[in-house]
Design goal:
- This protein is α/β, with parallel strands linked by helices.
- It has helices spanning 16-27, 41-51, 67-77, 95-101, 113-125, 132-144, 160-170, 175-182, 186-200, 205-215, and strands at residues 7-12, 32-38, 55-59, 82-87, 105-108.
- It has 2 domains: 7-130, Rossmann fold, CATH 3.40.50; 140-215, Rossmann fold.
- It is built from 10 helices and 5 strands; from the N terminus they run βαβαβαβαβαααααα.
- The chain has a 5-stranded parallel beta sheet with strand order 2-1-3-4-5, sandwiched between helices.
- Strand 4, helix 4 and strand 5 form a beta-alpha-beta unit.
- Helix 7 (160-170) crosses helix 9 (186-200).
- The protein starts with 6 loop residues before the first strand and ends in a 7-residue tail after the last helix.
Length: 222
């Protein structure tokens, strides 16, 4: 079924039982393999540099250096590595900071094994594994409490149509749903999204939505 070497996974959590459980889930799959473990943020950075995994399961809250800070440093050193944050709740107080640090998705600690595997494989494909409803609630919660809109000149590069597409992405619509709303082909919407990411200098849809909220292009509750 799988003709490529298994994807390398690094598990970083300060709870040994959590690491054991995640290892059992990951190593039970022929297309995934655990290459290392870490119990705190500094160990996570060192292990990432040593093993160069394709995906890291990174606990948000760890001693020494928390997962958000570790994610930012790992992202800077290993931009191709996918980071799946492990949280207790989908609205963890650090979740928005993790998005800004470059996290590719969230994995709730009590999620069933099947959901964990969907999330891991999703980020490996390059898909942001955060549901649109969770993303929007996070952004509205933290942007509302923040210092206010910060103008970003990169947004001026967007055409009117691209701004329209971005506003619908921020509302959680898929490419297919955006295509239906704007009476466009799905391939055309995908092209627009790609251009938006390039113009804003972000990696994925989540990054584009964060940028739109922070700049005031999209406002909470709109």
């Amino acid at each position: 079924m799988f003709d490529r070497p298994p994807s390398r996974v690094l598990i970083c959590d300060d709870q040994e039982m959590m690491r054991v459980g995640l290892r059992m889930v990951v190593d039970s799959q022929p297309d995934l393999t655990v290459v290392g473990e870490a119990a705190d943020g500094l160990q996570a950075i060192d292990a990432a540099a040593e093993h160069r995994p394709e995906v890291i399961l990174l606990d948000v809250r760890m001693p020494g250096l928390d997962g958000v800070a570790a994610a930012g440093r790992i992202r800077a050193a290993l931009p191709a590595t996918r980071i799946l944050m492990i949280t207790t709740f989908d609205l963890d107080e650090y979740a928005f900071a993790a998005l800004r640090a470059g996290a590719d998705g969230f994995l709730v600690k009590d999620a069933p094994a099947a959901e964990m595997l969907v999330a891991i494989r999703g980020v490996l494909r390059g898909d942001p594994m955060v549901s649109p409803s969770v993303t929007r609630r996070l952004l509205e919660r933290y942007v509302t409490a923040g210092p206010g809109p910060l103008p970003d000149p990169r947004l001026k590069r967007l055409t009117d149509r691209e701004r329209e597409v971005l506003s619908l992405v921020a509302r959680g619509l898929s490419n297919a749903e955006i295509a239906g709303r704007l009476h466009l082909g799905e391939t055309t919407v995908k092209t627009h999204v790609g251009r938006i990411l390039a113009k804003l200098g972000v990696r994925d849809r989540i990054g584009a939505v964060v940028r739109a909220y922070e700049s005031g292009l999209i406002r909470p509750g709109a």
